[in-house]
From TrEMBL:
Residue span, DUF659 domain: 7-115
Name by which UniProt lists this protein: DUF659 domain-containing protein
Short name of one Pfam family: DUF659
Protein species of origin: Beta vulgaris subsp. vulgaris (Beet)
Signal sequence coordinates: none
Amino acid sequence: MGIFPHPPYNRLRTTLLAQEKARLRKLLQPTRDRWVKKGLSLCSDSWSDGVNRPIINVMAAYGTSTIFVDSIDASGKRKDVAFVAEVFIQAIKEVGPENVVQVITDNGANFTAAGGDKFDVDVDVCDIADLSINKPDLRRALLDVEVGEEDED
């Protein structure tokens, strides 16, 4: 038996990686399309890897499907309320703020701490749940975006 020749490093990290990402996006599109009808739960979990780097994983859950959204290496970053808020805001932008019904976090102190001027997790997660019925208000509250003509698609 011969050895399988692997592609060159540059091709792996450029062309082949882009092709695989496009293939996965296409496979996941039917699930992403269903988010528009029923919404999704944005979930996060934080943990430490084998060398004690803090990692935050963000997933989008819908029915029986869960899609990985992002993984953040939080090494060297202050994991305060503002940082956690920014993680969620970026994830909400990625999945579409109009699709988010709720945000579910772990119970780490940095996720539940009150304070900061950007995102009070204890209060704002409840506010997000209340606002999810009125999606223009949800978008405005989370992303500081003026709701206008772009909502009349």
